[in-house]
């Protein structure tokens, strides 16, 4: 593998969840590449499919999910690996910082023990050595008095501290690739800044897929950003290009709905993923849609250096 | 510090909790807060998690019983009312919670949730209720087919609209909005906030808008109060406070990313004048004297 | 999904069948359960479908009449248990504070007394009929439900929608009836069914120990009489087995019904997040 070959390459990924009402097509032909040391932000709202994409990479979705396509990590297709091989990849090569929900940490285990568990699993250290390594990790994520906090239970941790603990958990084995799912959701402005600073510090040189709905966070951490809507990537490119001169109407609408930029809402709501519209998925809400948009499904078209948009306007 | 004809006048409000095994330690969630809100005005309340802003909001409506202080609503001190009299006051002052889904009874249909306030206070008869519910649901941008659904069938944004409809059913004069769009996507937030702002203007409601998001506060409030550890440390017109913060904590807040663009360098704050607790640095712009 | 619904309807069918039998006992039982209607210890034949016992009573008729006692003990007991447990649980959970403390301390004391022995002592002393027995069982058994209901009410009472309704100006009684109760009903429903099952078995046990009302036919008594008077030794399966089988079937049906109900209640509230 050459130096500038992509670390992760997703090709033609389709994810569907069978439900009582039909198959929810959460992901529709996603193509994505991430290079070594690069941070890519996956920007999208609820229902865009961004979390599904992140979880699909590590095959952490439910057993009855239908997945098609390829996910190449260092040249190997993760989707076709047997379970034991996949388990070796998880945590050691690719790690996840899960969404900071109430149950992202086991409420009945001490935080230090949970981190030590990851260390024991992948680094082979046991007992006191693992605990010491856990404390050191907590220190790296800037938790004050790490030795004492390692012995505490998750409910003693504030939202920001829990996020740091989750980052520590993911970094336990120094993975080459990190997937972070909404690390700043629900945090107030000051804590958010601290977490983002910490995040960029501890991940220097590491490839990161940063899943978020927070445009500011994406802007401050990522080199490239991919915008997702209704299960598709509708714009991708260098973060400055995409956020300062957005090509796709959805991206434009998203930026305009920020309070600082005028708070103009995008009319309507995201389409059902069970029966998405046949043409462009954003067409029903688009202010510049034409007849073509309703029937033809647009592909990704280059609109600038390294900058692509899925829109008929540029086709 | 506030006009004579304020809708809401809060005087030295304190809410203390006792914690610990034998109730020995006291948590001063709200530690002597005073401010006023005019009719039709929106006052933003900003602070980090744990600063007491949620407790303050709930204390104002006596959903949490404050320890001491006065809240004068249109001339009447709410704190002095009996429970029965307070209940009759309730339609005039309402609250919108952060989690819209939790604000609705999961087993009640939307139609029943919106009709409930009308029924409880006997504001309409049967036919009237049906009509009001239909008007309200349209006012918040949903339609009649949503009336038969249950909260879990609607999205977060849609649920928050239902909550708005429910609250507006009583045409309150004062609304406390506690982070109503936290956790909602940006485009949905824009929809809800625009709706909220328009309805607030139509109904001339006074509003306390609690948030930790400075961008939202800037867009929604006429004046803003900054809260830290149970006390208000700075208060004044929104653009003044956010563009020229005087208190060190406000400066720290405003400098965080995700605050807002267009932040100009703070002008040097003029010399203090006024009573020791809060000093007026400019017309209408007050800062806590202790540490700025 | 065929599996879940068949379990529900099948078990419900069995329960309803038992109720129907209990209600129509005077009509469908071929003989009066207490009269002598044939030779003693006779094996099953055309007139006596399950033969006769040592007192020449028709076993089949006794089996049918015995359904009544079982149903009363089970369902009346369950009603009392659930009503009491829910009422106390809701009040304790909703008001919290001193009310809750008082209830919990009382419960702590009462729960240390074992259920069945206490029941036994009360029935020995007072020799109540089945209705009173059912009520006593309900009161004693309901104590367990109080804790469970109270826990759920504690979290409901601080839920935003309850606080919101308080903010609307609703009275406490209204909130408890209109908002809290419907949200604990699934729990209550399941508790009802499991209590019914439990009390039926306890009732049989009491009958077996001879604590039952001698003027009422109950299956426990029948089993006891059969085993004491040579049913096992003489291999008189038609005397010994039917009551035991009858109670086993209803017990399983109730358990299955509770299980099927729980399954239906929960998935409704799941929303998938993408």
TrEMBL record, chain C:
One term under GO cellular component: plasma membrane
Compartments where found: Cell membrane
Entry-linked SUPFAM superfamilies: MetI-like
Pfam family for this entry, one: BPD_transp_1
Membrane topology: Multi-pass membrane protein
Recorded superkingdom: Archaea
Membrane-spanning parts: 7-29, 71-94, 106-124, 130-149, 184-209, 236-259
Major site of localization recorded for this protein: membrane
ABC transmembrane type-1 domain span: 67-258
Transmembrane helix among keywords: yes
Alphabetical keyword list: Cell membrane, Membrane, Transmembrane, Transmembrane helix, Transport
Regions annotated as coiled coil: none
GO biological process: transmembrane transport
PROSITE patterns recorded: ABC_TM1 (PS50928)
Family affiliation: Belongs to the binding-protein-dependent transport system permease family.
Protein name: Peptide/nickel transport system permease protein
Organism in which the protein naturally occurs: Methanoculleus bourgensis (strain ATCC 43281 / DSM 3045 / OCM 15 / MS2) (Methanogenium bourgense)
